Write the C-alpha coordinates for this entry.
Amino acid sequence: MRAIVIKRYGGPEVLAIEERPEPAAEPGHVVVEVKAFGLNHAEIYFRKGAWGDVAEISGIECVGRVKADPDHRFKPGQTVLALVGGMGRSINGSYAELVTVPSSNVVAVDSDLPWEDLAAIPESYATAWTSLIGILALAKDQVVAIRGATSALGQAAVNIAAGTHLSVFASAVVTGTPAFPLSEIPFQTIVSRVAEGSYKAKPARVFSFSEIRDAHRLMEANEAGGKIVVRV
Protein backbone atom coordinates (compact mmCIF):
# COMPACT_ATOMS: atom_id res chain seq x y z
CA MET A 1 0.00 0.00 0.00
CA ARG A 2 1.00 3.64 -0.34
CA ALA A 3 1.68 5.46 2.89
CA ILE A 4 2.88 8.91 3.91
CA VAL A 5 5.78 8.32 6.28
CA ILE A 6 7.88 10.48 8.57
CA LYS A 7 11.43 9.96 7.30
CA ARG A 8 12.95 12.03 10.12
CA TYR A 9 11.62 14.69 12.45
CA GLY A 10 11.32 18.17 10.98
CA GLY A 11 9.26 20.32 8.64
CA PRO A 12 6.72 19.29 5.98
CA GLU A 13 9.58 18.22 3.71
CA VAL A 14 10.21 15.12 5.89
CA LEU A 15 6.88 13.61 4.78
CA ALA A 16 7.35 11.12 1.94
CA ILE A 17 5.09 8.71 0.06
CA GLU A 18 6.46 5.17 0.13
CA GLU A 19 5.25 1.60 -0.17
CA ARG A 20 4.57 -0.29 3.05
CA PRO A 21 3.12 -3.77 3.77
CA GLU A 22 -0.64 -3.91 4.18
CA PRO A 23 -1.63 -4.07 7.86
CA ALA A 24 -2.81 -7.45 9.15
CA ALA A 25 -6.28 -8.02 10.54
CA GLU A 26 -5.97 -8.67 14.28
CA PRO A 27 -8.63 -9.48 16.92
CA GLY A 28 -9.97 -6.31 18.50
CA HIS A 29 -9.01 -4.23 15.47
CA VAL A 30 -10.58 -3.23 12.17
CA VAL A 31 -8.71 -2.79 8.89
CA VAL A 32 -10.08 0.28 7.12
CA GLU A 33 -9.59 1.18 3.46
CA VAL A 34 -8.93 4.89 3.86
CA LYS A 35 -10.82 7.17 1.48
CA ALA A 36 -9.98 10.52 3.09
CA PHE A 37 -8.56 11.91 6.31
CA GLY A 38 -8.61 15.21 8.14
CA LEU A 39 -5.46 16.96 9.31
CA ASN A 40 -4.91 17.87 12.96
CA HIS A 41 -2.32 20.02 14.71
CA ALA A 42 -1.28 16.98 16.75
CA GLU A 43 0.26 15.67 13.52
CA ILE A 44 2.54 18.71 13.36
CA TYR A 45 3.92 17.75 16.76
CA PHE A 46 4.26 14.12 15.64
CA ARG A 47 6.15 15.25 12.53
CA LYS A 48 8.50 17.48 14.52
CA GLY A 49 9.19 14.88 17.21
CA ALA A 50 7.94 17.34 19.83
CA TRP A 51 6.07 14.59 21.68
CA GLY A 52 8.87 12.03 21.51
CA ASP A 53 9.08 9.05 19.21
CA VAL A 54 5.87 8.32 17.35
CA ALA A 55 4.65 5.92 14.67
CA GLU A 56 6.22 6.13 11.22
CA ILE A 57 2.81 6.69 9.60
CA SER A 58 1.00 9.70 11.05
CA GLY A 59 -2.71 10.57 11.15
CA ILE A 60 -5.26 10.36 13.97
CA GLU A 61 -8.52 10.11 12.01
CA CYS A 62 -10.02 8.92 8.73
CA VAL A 63 -13.13 7.80 6.90
CA GLY A 64 -13.42 4.83 4.58
CA ARG A 65 -14.72 1.31 4.15
CA VAL A 66 -14.15 -1.77 6.27
CA LYS A 67 -11.75 -4.21 4.63
CA ALA A 68 -11.58 -6.75 7.46
CA ASP A 69 -12.86 -7.27 10.99
CA PRO A 70 -11.82 -10.56 12.65
CA ASP A 71 -14.46 -10.04 15.34
CA HIS A 72 -17.27 -9.50 12.81
CA ARG A 73 -18.56 -6.36 14.51
CA PHE A 74 -18.43 -4.55 11.18
CA LYS A 75 -19.23 -5.79 7.69
CA PRO A 76 -16.78 -5.64 4.78
CA GLY A 77 -17.50 -2.56 2.70
CA GLN A 78 -19.30 -0.76 5.52
CA THR A 79 -18.74 3.01 5.71
CA VAL A 80 -16.94 3.96 8.93
CA LEU A 81 -15.31 6.82 10.79
CA ALA A 82 -12.16 6.07 12.77
CA LEU A 83 -10.33 8.30 15.22
CA VAL A 84 -7.48 8.34 17.73
CA GLY A 85 -7.05 5.02 19.58
CA GLY A 86 -3.28 5.46 19.40
CA MET A 87 -3.22 6.13 15.65
CA GLY A 88 -0.16 8.10 14.61
CA ARG A 89 1.26 7.96 18.11
CA SER A 90 1.74 4.37 19.29
CA ILE A 91 0.44 2.60 16.16
CA ASN A 92 0.59 3.49 12.47
CA GLY A 93 -2.04 6.04 11.56
CA SER A 94 -4.36 7.10 8.79
CA TYR A 95 -1.95 8.71 6.32
CA ALA A 96 -2.15 5.56 4.22
CA GLU A 97 -4.36 3.57 1.89
CA LEU A 98 -5.08 1.09 4.71
CA VAL A 99 -5.01 1.44 8.49
CA THR A 100 -5.68 -0.87 11.43
CA VAL A 101 -7.70 0.77 14.21
CA PRO A 102 -8.92 -0.56 17.58
CA SER A 103 -12.57 -1.53 17.08
CA SER A 104 -13.51 0.67 20.04
CA ASN A 105 -12.47 3.66 17.95
CA VAL A 106 -14.45 2.82 14.81
CA VAL A 107 -18.05 3.87 14.16
CA ALA A 108 -20.29 2.84 11.25
CA VAL A 109 -22.46 5.49 9.56
CA ASP A 110 -24.87 5.65 6.65
CA SER A 111 -24.18 8.65 4.45
CA ASP A 112 -24.12 9.83 0.85
CA LEU A 113 -21.73 12.66 1.69
CA PRO A 114 -18.59 12.85 -0.45
CA TRP A 115 -15.62 11.29 1.31
CA GLU A 116 -13.88 14.62 1.75
CA ASP A 117 -16.96 16.12 3.45
CA LEU A 118 -17.31 13.10 5.72
CA ALA A 119 -13.62 13.36 6.63
CA ALA A 120 -14.15 16.82 8.11
CA ILE A 121 -16.31 15.34 10.88
CA PRO A 122 -14.72 12.64 13.11
CA GLU A 123 -12.16 14.23 15.44
CA SER A 124 -13.55 17.77 15.47
CA TYR A 125 -17.12 16.70 16.17
CA ALA A 126 -16.19 13.96 18.64
CA THR A 127 -14.18 16.44 20.69
CA ALA A 128 -16.73 19.25 20.45
CA TRP A 129 -19.71 17.01 21.25
CA THR A 130 -18.05 15.34 24.22
CA SER A 131 -16.85 18.68 25.61
CA LEU A 132 -20.14 20.55 25.20
CA ILE A 133 -22.71 17.82 25.73
CA GLY A 134 -20.98 14.94 27.48
CA ILE A 135 -18.99 17.00 29.99
CA LEU A 136 -20.71 20.41 30.11
CA ALA A 137 -24.26 19.20 29.51
CA LEU A 138 -24.90 22.42 27.61
CA ALA A 139 -28.60 23.24 27.64
CA LYS A 140 -30.91 25.51 25.64
CA ASP A 141 -30.64 29.24 26.44
CA GLN A 142 -27.25 28.85 28.11
CA VAL A 143 -24.40 30.99 26.81
CA VAL A 144 -21.00 29.50 26.02
CA ALA A 145 -17.77 31.21 24.97
CA ILE A 146 -15.88 29.25 22.31
CA ARG A 147 -12.18 29.98 22.06
CA GLY A 148 -10.72 29.77 18.57
CA ALA A 149 -14.09 29.62 16.85
CA THR A 150 -12.53 29.95 13.38
CA SER A 151 -10.68 26.62 13.73
CA ALA A 152 -12.18 23.30 12.62
CA LEU A 153 -12.83 22.32 16.24
CA GLY A 154 -14.19 25.77 17.06
CA GLN A 155 -16.58 25.68 14.11
CA ALA A 156 -17.80 22.23 15.19
CA ALA A 157 -18.39 23.57 18.70
CA VAL A 158 -20.32 26.56 17.35
CA ASN A 159 -22.55 24.27 15.27
CA ILE A 160 -23.27 22.00 18.22
CA ALA A 161 -23.74 24.81 20.74
CA ALA A 162 -26.09 26.71 18.44
CA GLY A 163 -28.41 23.62 17.77
CA THR A 164 -28.25 21.83 21.52
CA HIS A 165 -20.12 22.26 30.68
CA LEU A 166 -16.90 23.50 29.08
CA SER A 167 -13.66 21.93 30.40
CA VAL A 168 -10.41 20.42 29.24
CA PHE A 169 -10.92 17.23 27.23
CA ALA A 170 -7.92 15.20 26.05
CA SER A 171 -9.57 13.35 23.18
CA ALA A 172 -6.43 11.54 22.01
CA VAL A 173 -6.05 9.94 25.43
CA VAL A 174 -9.59 9.03 26.44
CA THR A 175 -11.81 8.83 23.36
CA GLY A 176 -12.90 5.24 22.87
CA THR A 177 -12.20 4.24 26.48
CA PRO A 178 -14.99 2.98 28.81
CA ALA A 179 -15.21 6.46 30.33
CA PHE A 180 -15.76 8.10 26.92
CA PRO A 181 -17.12 5.46 24.52
CA LEU A 182 -17.79 6.48 20.92
CA SER A 183 -21.27 5.02 21.30
CA GLU A 184 -22.22 8.09 23.33
CA ILE A 185 -21.41 10.40 20.42
CA PRO A 186 -24.34 10.49 17.97
CA PHE A 187 -22.24 10.37 14.83
CA GLN A 188 -25.17 9.35 12.64
CA THR A 189 -27.12 12.40 13.82
CA ILE A 190 -24.09 14.62 13.27
CA VAL A 191 -23.52 13.23 9.76
CA SER A 192 -27.20 13.69 8.92
CA ARG A 193 -27.15 17.29 10.13
CA VAL A 194 -24.10 17.97 8.00
CA ALA A 195 -25.85 16.42 4.99
CA GLU A 196 -28.99 18.50 5.48
CA GLY A 197 -26.97 21.68 5.98
CA SER A 198 -27.90 22.50 9.58
CA TYR A 199 -24.26 21.90 10.53
CA LYS A 200 -21.85 23.86 8.33
CA ALA A 201 -18.97 21.43 8.20
CA LYS A 202 -17.52 21.37 4.69
CA PRO A 203 -13.72 21.22 4.61
CA ALA A 204 -11.98 24.54 4.09
CA ARG A 205 -9.42 22.95 1.73
CA VAL A 206 -9.05 19.55 0.10
CA PHE A 207 -5.67 18.23 -1.01
CA SER A 208 -4.64 15.11 -2.89
CA PHE A 209 -2.49 12.41 -1.27
CA SER A 210 0.58 13.66 -3.15
CA GLU A 211 0.05 17.21 -1.83
CA ILE A 212 0.55 16.28 1.83
CA ARG A 213 3.50 18.64 2.26
CA ASP A 214 1.48 21.60 0.98
CA ALA A 215 -1.40 20.58 3.25
CA HIS A 216 0.92 20.56 6.27
CA ARG A 217 2.37 23.93 5.33
CA LEU A 218 -1.11 25.44 5.21
CA MET A 219 -2.07 23.86 8.53
CA GLU A 220 1.09 25.10 10.23
CA ALA A 221 0.50 28.61 8.89
CA ASN A 222 -2.96 28.63 10.51
CA GLU A 223 -4.46 30.10 7.34
CA ALA A 224 -6.98 27.43 6.35
CA GLY A 225 -9.95 28.89 8.23
CA GLY A 226 -11.37 25.44 8.91
CA LYS A 227 -10.74 21.74 8.39
CA ILE A 228 -8.08 20.58 5.96
CA VAL A 229 -8.82 17.23 4.35
CA VAL A 230 -6.71 14.91 2.21
CA ARG A 231 -8.43 12.67 -0.34
CA VAL A 232 -6.69 9.31 -0.80
